Amino acid sequence: EIEKKHPVVVESYEDKLFQRIKEITGNQIEVDENRLLTEVAVFADKIDISEEITRLKSHVGQIRENLNKTEPVGRKLDFILQEMYREINTIASKSPDSTISYYVVEVKSEIEKMREQVQNVE
Fold first, then answer.
1. Digit-coded pLDDT (tens) for 37-73
2. Under DSSP, is residue 78 helix (H, G, I), strand (E, B) or coil?
């Protein structure tokens, strides 16, 4: 859901920025489209979470792999979950969107539940 919502955040920012400029200038000044696009591009780069999402997906794959092993994997799973927690925290710090913030809290809660369960895995 976070991955789906993220592109909409950038589009919304562009719309809000354009509207805010119109409000401030009283629609008296024509907006420089190139400057507006530059600002949106800088914002999009600043809040880009694609790397974090890619790493989260990789961590999920690693968890699945490890759950199928017959050797002890508890510590390894705990480490992977710790890394997932870091990634989701980075997403939280980068995203200004309240819906994404809601999903981040949900993911954090699930990761914590999993970490508690992993403590009992050999």
1. 888 888 888 899 999 999 999 999 999 999 999 999 9
2. helix
